[in-house]
Amino acid sequence: MNGIQEVASSILVSSTTESPLMSKLVSAAGYLLMVGSLVGLLASRSLFSPAPPAIIVQAGAAALMIWARLTFGRRSFHATADPTAGGLVTTGPYRYIRHPIYTSACLFGWAGAIAHFSWPAMGLALLLLAGAIIRVITEERLLVERYPEYRQYAAKTKRVIPGIF
Questions:
Q1: Are 132 and 74 in contact (CB under 8 A)?
Q2: Closest-CA residue to 12 (of 136, 147, 154)
């Protein structure tokens, strides 16, 4: 996964450092990739599965998303990366991973794609992952600017997989 991250990061470095508007456009593109991929998996009947392993993973992903949203509180969600006021959230699932909502979306989509293995489903799952990586990188640049303590938090907390990435 580090290879994907490095490629995405190098593409984003030039585009997001030039202007806040460009950062928002790149972030919106990542969001659209994520949403479009999930809609594509749903439309192709590759998102939900009757297989118990997929159901377990997707239930866990849904629980993680709910936990993250409850921990995040009343702050709004933005289609573009836009750190909200109110301080850096480092409790709940954010204690273990920096991006639990993106993690849950990827887990949910990948569980469905693997359960309904096909090349189109795997392609959509890869687009979902690419969109999430774009969002993570773009959002983290903005978080560092808004919250100086984010660097220290990032040094001890992995992005999406505790202890690994």
A1: no
A2: 136
The CA distance from 98 to 54, in Å, is 24
Q: Name, in order, each residue with C-beta under 8 angstroms of 137's C-beta and a sequence gap of 6 or more.
A: 5, 8, 9, 12, 16
Q: Which CATH architecture has domain 2-156?
A: Up-down Bundle (1.20)
Percent of the residues in the chain that have a pLDDT greater than 70, as a whole number? 84
| Residue-range domain boundaries for the chain | 2-156
Backbone angles phi, psi at 87, to 5 degrees: 95, 160
In angstroms, the Cα distances linking 142 to 54, 66, 83, 145 are 34, 24, 7, 5
pTM of the complete model: 0.85
